[in-house]
């Protein structure tokens, strides 16, 4: 577990980190991402993190099995990093103050993973008073655009767009996959202000920060835009790497910008 211990300095303006994140991939599987739309963005993100981070990047791949066909990133990570997880539960204690999330479903198993991460922080006295950032690589995360639990529903404009896109997929590929990349979902909100408003409400509803980390205020960051959702002595930042947001470039360049210049 010592490889998972890293300390970072968050520069003023929340632009760059001086240390290495821990990457968690939850259920990167064609069982849900039927067309494997998140596979290549996840691979690009992993390669960029490994290239630009100041040290080796710890990766934990949560999988419900070891089938390399079903779990399409299993052959791309160290076999020792694969951890069995049926519903996204995180049986590993994470001590890194900067965690990068990929996989899915964003509203289901991925949410279970992050809640377990927060609970682990809240139970550890040496961590519970420190800031924590969870960064979601939106092109490498999938989700159902409709049919979510109360409080996690997407706006009707997203649900309508997903119904149209699903029908088009079925006509084009014969596979009417109901999951979409998270960046595609966010694209269907009008502007960054609408996205931040939606994400603030969603993150407060989805995560047990008020229970696990009661002294942490929730902040959402999308591209370079910030929104403080709740107040607190410490910061729990949900940051969305969203290459389509104003001020961001390609996924690789956006990840490069997370680290101080060499």
Quick structural overview:
The protein is of the alpha/beta class and 262 residues long. 30% of the residues lie in helices and 21% in strands.
What does this structure look like?
It is a single chain. The chain is of the alpha/beta class and 262 residues long. The chain has one domain: Rossmann fold (3-Layer(aba) Sandwich). Helices cover 30% and strands 21% of the residues. It is built from 7 helices and 9 strands. It has helices spanning 39-52, 109-123, 156-173, 182-187, 192-206, 209-212, 251-256; strands at residues 22-26, 59-63, 82-84, 98-103, 132-144, 179-181, 216-222, 225-228, 234-241. Strands 1, 2, 3, 4, 5, 6, 7, 8 and 9 form a 9-stranded mixed beta sheet that branches. Helix 1 links the parallel strand 1 (22-26) and strand 2 (59-63). The two termini are 27 Å apart. The relative contact order is 0.15.
Largest sheet: 9 strands, mixed
Give the fraction of residues assigned to helices: 25-40%
Rounded Rg: 17 Å
CATH architecture: 3-Layer(aba) Sandwich
Shape assignment: globular
* Strand coverage percent: 15-25%
Content-based structural category? alpha/beta
Low-confidence stretches: 1-16
Mean pLDDT: 85
Instruction: Write down the CATH topology.
Output: Rossmann fold
Number of strands: 9
